[in-house]
Task: inverse folding
């Protein structure tokens, strides 16, 4: 029998009505055997996510406020779900334990994890599944790094003993038992870890959208959906701002060759987006798969005569940047020039010191830092087999009177990255989208 791991985001489990939708989805397919829930998200636009409520409560308790008073709204959320679902479930002991640990300063990561933990208990009860506490199955090293080998062995052994289980997302445990969380959005990563340990045939990631879109709908009106995307394309788009799936979530399933299907809890009949290993090389529906980008970059522009003959020039340049905690996004070079693209926020408070240090170490003929750059990535496996893709990108920008300040293309021919003025960011994405998606 095939096995699927299904992860549901906070909006999918925000209230009892959403719980019922989730249960219907799970029971509709016998293969959906392992479930990874997030904490309850927003029920309406002005609502507060339970994770944020837990952070606020923990901070309040540390400041000497009464736990019961601070925790009342959180208890109400969970007890309301239990009551509306008609469950016979008493979480009073769990609430009491959380109170004790909050007062003992168990840490903000412990506090944040309790949303997933409590939601997991409720969902397991509602589904009739076993409950596996992620703190007993997902592990970190003493340095706080995810321990893939130990987790895969331990979690895999646990899953072998149960046919149906709920495993809360977002957290695990340090070697001493202290709760450790992944970064925000880490339930996506947990789902991927569970899929690998279960040797699943599919990892379904259920959210509130029907898969990925070619472009940001806040910029392009009604952009086309992406039906199939490779892991490599997803990484490129996620890194440049596309945010449907936590970008680190692909690694565990990628190594195991497990596909991911992004689905919509509120429209389960929609096909969603299927993410597959690159080596399967599915046919591309369009020349480009997606467009994404980010603002707030700066260009460190350096000129030096016969730069290429100065041994160790780039090494010294990169060492200075590293010493200042600055890591290049891109670094296009010429014979006597190099431009280093960095996040503008990394320069805050150290522009003058950095400038002086670079001048002392590499002695440039010309040096300047220019702000206001935006980067846009045009990504697509279809570009490898179609000539003239870069020409079309440049033509679209040229016809819109948008100046290109940087061009970069990887050797894989999977993406083209252009640097433009931040003021032209939205306009550029629209004209590139129109060039490829409306003319094909």
Result:
């Amino acid at each position: 029998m095939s096995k699927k791991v299904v992860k549901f985001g906070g909006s999918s489990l925000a209230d009892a009505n959403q719980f019922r939708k989730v249960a219907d989805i799970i029971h509709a397919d016998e293969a959906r055997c392992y479930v990874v829930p997030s904490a309850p998200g927003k029920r309406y636009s002005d609502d507060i996510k339970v994770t944020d409520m837990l952070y606020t409560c923990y901070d309040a308790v540390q400041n000497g406020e009464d736990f019961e008073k601070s925790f009342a709204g959180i208890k109400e959320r969970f007890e309301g779900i239990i009551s509306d679902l008609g469950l016979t479930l008493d979480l009073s002991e769990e609430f009491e334990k959380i109170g004790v640990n909050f007062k003992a300063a168990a840490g903000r990561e412990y506090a944040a994890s309790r949303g997933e933990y409590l939601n997991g208990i409720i969902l397991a009860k509602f589904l009739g599944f076993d409950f596996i506490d992620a703190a007993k199955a997902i592990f970190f090293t003493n340095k706080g790094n995810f321990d893939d080998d130990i987790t895969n062995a331990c979690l895999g052994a646990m899953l072998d003993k149960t046919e149906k289980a709920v495993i809360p997302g977002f957290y695990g445990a340090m070697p001493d038992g202290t709760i450790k969380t992944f970064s925000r959005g880490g339930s996506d990563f947990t789902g991927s870890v569970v899929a690998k340990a279960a040797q699943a045939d599919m990892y379904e990631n259920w959210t509130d959208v029907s898969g990925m879109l070619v472009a940001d709908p806040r910029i392009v009106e009604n952009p086309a959906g992406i039906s199939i995307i490779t892991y490599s394309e997803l990484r490129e788009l996620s890194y440049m701002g596309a945010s449907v799936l936590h970008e680190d979530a692909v690694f565990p399933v990628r190594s195991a060759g497990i596909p991911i299907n992004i689905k919509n809890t509120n429209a389960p009949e929609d096909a969603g987006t299927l993410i597959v290993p690159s080596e399967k090389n599915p046919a591309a529906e369009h020349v480009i798969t997606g467009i994404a980008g980010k603002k707030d970059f700066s260009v460190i522009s350096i000129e030096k005569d016969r730069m290429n003959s100065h041994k160790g020039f780039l090494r010294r340049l990169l060492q200075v940047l590293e010493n200042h905690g600055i890591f290049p996004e891109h670094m296009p070079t010429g014979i006597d020039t190099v431009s280093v693209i960095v996040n503008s926020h990394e320069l805050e408070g150290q522009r003058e010191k950095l400038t002086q240090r670079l001048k002392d170490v590499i002695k440039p003929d010309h040096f300047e830092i220019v702000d206001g750059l935006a980067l846009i990535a045009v990504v697509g496996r279809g570009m490898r087999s179609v000539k003239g893709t870069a020409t079309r990108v440049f033509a679209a920008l040229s016809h819109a009177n948008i100046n290109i300040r940087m061009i970069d293309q990887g050797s894989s021919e999977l993406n083209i990255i252009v640097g433009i003025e931040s003021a032209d960011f939205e306009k550029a994405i629209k004209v590139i989208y129109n060039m490829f998606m409306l003319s094909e």
